[in-house]
Request: fold
Amino acid sequence: MFRVLKHARIPLFSNRKSNHIFTIWQRIVLVTIRQYEGKSYRMFVDWLFEAYYLRSFLRLSRIPHFTTLQKFTGRINNALLEKIISTFIVISGTKHIFVGIDSTGFRMTSASQYYTDRTGLRRKYAKLLSIGADVLQQIICTIKIRRAPTRHDNIDFKPIITRIAEIRGYSKVLYNQQNKDETIMSVIKRLFGEHLMSRLTRTQNRELSFRCITYNMHRLTNLTILMMIST
Reply:
């Protein structure tokens, strides 16, 4: 993850007058791991007390308060998160992006399908996540987040294609092969769930962005392990 942040040229501190207790890198990694662990901010900070090797690796001078990570998630710039996401495909070493696009909804409640069917409640989707991903590496290149769909999600496809073209270009021949994107969406929901824990719109958007970063880190790690085994 540090390699990604370094390549994306993410600064260690937002400004010179910050308290310099925790770096931006440390907080990004912690919030990313929180997504992977699927814990609330309070539970994650409690978990950090037991995670000695992680604290040692990150060189944490002390364990942050849960509100430190919570406020950081809501405050971090969305453009910075998108830059981090797009950096994964750059450092993966691929020369051409074979793009696929897909969308999926995320719910505000963790209620099961059985419960909603029994109670007659509708499965309310609060956010729609659209991704543009490389179908060969299965790495997310760029994303678009908006409120629950009120119209067809094709409106998100044009800006996604435009942003991917700015990264490395794409192949129109493989444009319609979106089955790998459906696999990516399935993995994200299986690993991190399909409901959002945040209540505010801004933090919901950041939560989905961090889930995509966490997925990319998970995928890039697996690709690295497979390469090491094969060689």
